[in-house]
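Notebook entry, structure prediction.
Reason for the run: the old model in the group folder had no record of what sequence produced it. Starting over properly, with the input documented here first.
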Amino acid sequence: MKIGLICPYSLDLPGGVQHQVRFLASEIRNRGHEAVIVGPGLETAPYGEIRIGGTVSMPGNGSVAPLLLNPSRRNAFMEAIGPMDVLHVHEPALPALGWWAARSGMPQVHTFHADAPRRRGALGRAIINRLPAPATGVAVSEVAAANWRRSLEIVPNAVEAVALRSNRQRGQVVCIGRDEPRKGISVLVDAWPNVLKAVPHARLHLTTGADPSPGITQHGLLSTAEKWELLASSEVAVSPNRFGESFGLVVAEALACGTPLVMSDLPAFRAVADTAAVVVPPGDAEALATAIVALLNDPGERKRRSLLGREVVKRFGVVGIVDRYLDLYQGAVEQQ
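New structure, fully documented this time:
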């Protein structure tokens, strides 16, 4: 099959959906199929990607979404998807690529990633609920499936297999996330002085901006390899997100590295981590600091959480997830 994976967000920028789309495309190619990613962007596209134009930053759900809104790019989009046997449309409710794809008449599968009620509002739900239904609709979690008037199968995000490492750096804490209100980086920064008081050798590594503070290192944008290295070398990972999460890929990635995790008590995070993570109330800097200190000071508990996390994350192995999507693609083609 020739499969078109439609990404609504700029392919020039990093992001969870962009990463998942590229990861699925790579694994689909490994199965002998042709996979082409189509999405917004202006930079020179690498192999297997078609970028069809610039984006506008649209605020919502405590984040900013880089979306293509230019109606003049519709012909370029339709030309890009013309040779495909089936489309895999990610976030079909978002303008404009999902709307164009839904009206193309082509076989397709829709995947809903986001926390729909807060992210899109009544207008977005009204639009997608009136679009022609695909052969199969998929959501990455029960949270993402909520409030859509169609039957959605739950197919979680896939997590890359990573080599397990044991070179943990003493006192190293890591937080993978963008500097957006819903990611809760400010809560972690507020908690950090209390962590340092209890564990003076602790060092916090951030992948986003923060005011310079003692014991904090800012890395900026990381490559995939650098991200895994930072996770795998840390004694504790933190996901202090405040709201609006529908899956928790950063949670799953920490578990895949066997890194003990402190995370906010969000339904989507609990669905991913089960009992493997230490849970704190969202936005509670004091509780966050207490949990981080407790893990840093307890090697036995860190080992227990590490083993439990590695076991839990097996549910998100790529083999079963890609197999399921290939079945859905075939079913969409056969039902056309």
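Summary: Residues 318-335 form the longest helix (18 residues).
The old model has been moved to the deprecated folder.
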